[in-house]
What we know:
Two copies of one chain form a homodimer. Chain A is of the alpha+beta class. Chain A is 33% helix and 27% strand. Mean pLDDT of chain A is 90; it is low at 1-13 and 199-204.
Amino acid sequence: xxxxxxxxxxxxxxADIAPVEGGVTxxxxxxxxxxxxxxxxxxxxxxxxxxxxxAPASAAALFTTNLVQAAPVTVSRxxxxxxxxxxxxxxxxxxxxxxCTGAQGTxxxxxxxxxxxxxxxxxxxxxxxxxxxxxxxxxxxxxVVNGIRAAAARLAPGGGVEAARAIMTTDPFPKExxxxxSTPRGRFTVGGMAKGSGMIEPNMATMLGFxxxxxxxxxxxxxxxxxxxxxxxxxxxxxxGECSTNDSLFAxxxxxxxxxxxxxAYPALVDGLLAVSRELAVxxxxxxxxxxxxxxxxxxxxxxxxxxRQVARTIANSPLVKTAVHGADPNWGRIVAAAxxxxxxxxxxxxxxxxxxxxxxxDGLPHDESAPLAAKHLEGKNVRIDVSLGTGGGLSAVxxxxxxxxxxxxxxxxxxx
Amino acid sequence: xxxxxxxxxxxxxxADIAPVEGGVTxxxxxxxxxxxxxxxxxxxxxxxxxxxxxAPASAAALFTTNLVQAAPVTVSRxxxxxxxxxxxxxxxxxxxxxxCTGAQGTxxxxxxxxxxxxxxxxxxxxxxxxxxxxxxxxxxxxxVVNGIRAAAARLAPGGGVEAARAIMTTDPFPKExxxxxSTPRGRFTVGGMAKGSGMIEPNMATMLGFxxxxxxxxxxxxxxxxxxxxxxxxxxxxxxGECSTNDSLFAxxxxxxxxxxxxxAYPALVDGLLAVSRELAVxxxxxxxxxxxxxxxxxxxxxxxxxxRQVARTIANSPLVKTAVHGADPNWGRIVAAAxxxxxxxxxxxxxxxxxxxxxxxDGLPHDESAPLAAKHLEGKNVRIDVSLGTGGGLSAVxxxxxxxxxxxxxxxxxxx
Lengths: 417, 417
């Protein structure tokens, strides 16, 4: 994104960030391989990927908060707990979520880790697992096992491009990004890939994210940086307010750049993770089901970040706001009403609403004369909604979402499982 | 609804309930009048109604929980507080919500009450006010005042039919209902009318409900009965999860039947209010924007009614569940995932999901062989989704909603303010 350099500069000028090619395998010490193993019907469609570190790497992971969790989530959580944040690889399949598959599903997820471990010569616990696709369907484990062997044989430092394609389900385009982070103590690289485009057919789709860096980061610090960067990126996007049984976000640090991250260098690592994660997360929104516009909802002057986030999320998930944006209608009333039912406490007479920077509501009253200017902004692909709660608290948050189109209904309704 | 008599019978057989004609003016002691005063553009469209009691009546009201509240809500709340639950009339206009209209809006809402009071010969505080329609637009108060005088001159015991039409905005049909309640101590009547079809163009629509009875009910008891009956009816429906600045529900008791409601007769009053409110509330869902089906989501075997309601509401508001129902897709996975993210705690291996009575998910695994039968049920106009959480708590709740169609997007998106 255009503002990544500015954001990084804004944090005290510690790090200079620049985009580079290579995606998830851009950082040194990582390789990836992907194949079509036969889960997706089309022989041309990649459906299995292995992302591997050359040597044991620091690892951190965040998983879905849905009470119903898929087998790969359960197994990955166990593995990363047992190794205390060390991993050699993550194996991913698309086309089948291995969710709601009972005890057999757990056996299959473990088998995926074991096969990968055998191919790489590491312990099964050093392999994490992710799946995305149809739920309630048993994995064709024989095909997956063959696919793991073939993908491991294809592992290459330039394999990020094909891996980003292999994890797609109904995503309209692959999502990958990488940046170099230059700091006083040297330069390191952060890369990543992601998939997800709203909950999708035939049952649901999943948000999966994979981040890599060649900085040297202790597991606990990596986890802290991942939590912080995800809060304003992967956890700040919503397509339809749904959350899946398989959502997972992984981060791996190989240390191969020789740049060690301690508390002093920590902000530079966070900036790098933020830069890559934001690009991937906004890419997920841009590729949302039926999406024609990306909407950034910023809520400012709240008493807490949580309060700002709660208001922004209510506005971003409002079907009325999303349909209004789709129709390029500067409907401040729907924004005010969504803020009002968000649960946040504010004085409507101190609330302001701007669309594309144009003031539409202030002092409890509309500025109808500005509607045409705001409507013009809404014709574009990138929409900004800015709300100030006027509490004097000064805290803010942003949530990204997309518009709601008839195409969303078509994708999700006019298909039979 | 077909099951009203059964529901009443189920509460110990105290009351026998039967539908009657007449809507909100079916109970003795009430009259209504409606006119076109000039807020709606079409001269044929009624846009103002007065519902009046022949003498001061007990009154109760519930208002929107949205932090942003329209002027008529503020004024009605003040009036009913001052009289401690006594009212002669409620005046309603459609076409303009008188919301986000600043101090001028409050002046106008008070003026509506005062004009009505003058016409009826009562105190302004004995008149309640409701508005629905465009927000952020100032009322044409001169037209409204003339309309109030004309409507008051038309007051008639059979005026309920035209009043139910005058409160409509984009509602596809008027919603009115009445029942007689026969008890050991005599028979009384409950009537009602409502409007609302989701938050609608050009800004939002409102849920307004008006209930009348000729039972004799002290204000405090009327309020308690209204709260109880609204919980499982007006507060158990959702079209798009939105809540308006103007939502209001009123109840009036004239006492003209001579049947006095005390604690013993209280269940019969609740049954009568429930019967009318359920018919009106389900009518609002049936008339929801773009709705083609009514969906009853029942969640059973929860540890609390609140928990059951929370799960039912999450499922009912899920765009994925609503689009799946629209497409007649028995997508148990979306139902399980929505339950999982609802915040309720349950064991997915004890969860069961039924669609149209057909078991689709049990013991953590799908019953795919039953999908065709469930799909057949989903072809119909009335859809039942039954979820049991299997907590052993035994408590349940139902939420009514409608499917999500491309027409909803069209109505809400392809229109410019």
